[in-house]
Amino acid sequence: MFYIYATMKVKSIKTEKDYQDALKRLDVIFDAAPNTKEGDELEILGALIDDYEKIYFPIDLLKRI
């Protein structure tokens, strides 16, 4: 599945390599201004990374003692 916005191409994150590539791109566009091409890419990429991390790096809730 691919998401395309103007000339931006963001693909779903399915592998560790996809995840690492997405993190590298996120680092490059991290300070993008809102309502710009890169700002929109940042929002989409952030959501994809968040979804991937929830599946592959779940954080267990702390148990009360």
- Low-pLDDT parts are 1-5
Order of helices and strands: EEHH
Distance between the termini: 44 Å
- Helical fraction equals 40-55%
- Averaged pLDDT, please? 87
What would you call the quaternary organization? single chain
User: What overall form do the CA principal axes indicate?
Assistant: globular
Number of beta strands = 2
Structural class: alpha+beta
Q: How many helix segments?
A: 2
Give the domain tally: 1
Q: How large is the share of residues in beta strands?
A: 5-15%
- Largest sheet properties: 2 strands, antiparallel
**Major sheet: arrangement of strands:** 1-2
Rg, rounded, reads 14 Å
Task: Give a description of the structure.
This protein is of the alpha+beta class. The protein contains two helices and two strands. Strands 1-2 form a two-stranded antiparallel ribbon. α1 packs antiparallel against α2. The longest helix is centred in the C-terminal third of the chain and has 20 residues, at 37-56.
List the helices and strands and how they pair.
Layout: E1 2-5, E2 8-11, H1 16-29, H2 37-56
Antiparallel strand pairs: 1-2
Please provide a brief summary of the model.
The chain is built from 2 helices and 2 strands; from the N terminus they run ββαα.
